[in-house]
Here is the input.
Amino acid sequence: MSARLIRKLERFAKLSKAEKQALHDASVSTLRLPAHADLIQEGDPADGVHLMLEGFACRYKLLPDGRRQIVAYCVPGDFCDLRVFVPQRMDHSVGTMSPVHLARLSREKVSELTDRYPRVTRALWWTTLVDEAIAREWVVNVGQRTAFERAAHLMCEVFLRLRAVGLARGSTCELPLTQTEIADTLALSTVHVNRTLMELRRAGLITLRDKQLTIHDLQALQKEAGFNSDYLHLEASSGGDHQSRG
Here is the structure.
């Protein structure tokens, strides 16, 4: 089980050695998929949970004419489909944007974890609340922000999410997204995305090259995007059984 998941969960609950070991032991198998493959398709039975160990994936919806809207990114330490306990069949698809390595947990294993370990349950609950907060921010992004603000906001969010699980090196992180995938995320055309990324580069805010994102001035980029990271809950919770992780 990914240490990145433990690091993420401990923002919300201080886990004991037994709880960490239970998380490590919960995986029933692992799998690898290439880029641009479907892990789950809309309508598939919801019979397990997948944890991202390496790579990038996304949740998406397809319209009848083939147009796609990406509605969430899954990065290492994220569950792709923790909500499988609500629907019997998936109401969206999950696809890869880079080669990925995943751990699979059965519904029974997750039920056992949440029944036996209340703090794990509480931490997982917190992660779903953060997912919902991100989804709300994405709605605002495509509904109200300009193309420049949308792209700047997305770059801030992805960088901070990766940095929070130890996947940023200074001001640089991996960003293995095509311009088409960014377009499907921001509800823009590919041409518009290309032009917007050029504007961000000319402004001296970012460099996006060879699947690597470098943010030259994070504070300035956040200002341009109107970005406030509070919705990501990156700091450790101040609840009674939590401790700051620094």
About this structure: The chain has two domains: 3-133, 140-232. The mean pLDDT is 90. The radius of gyration is 18 Å.
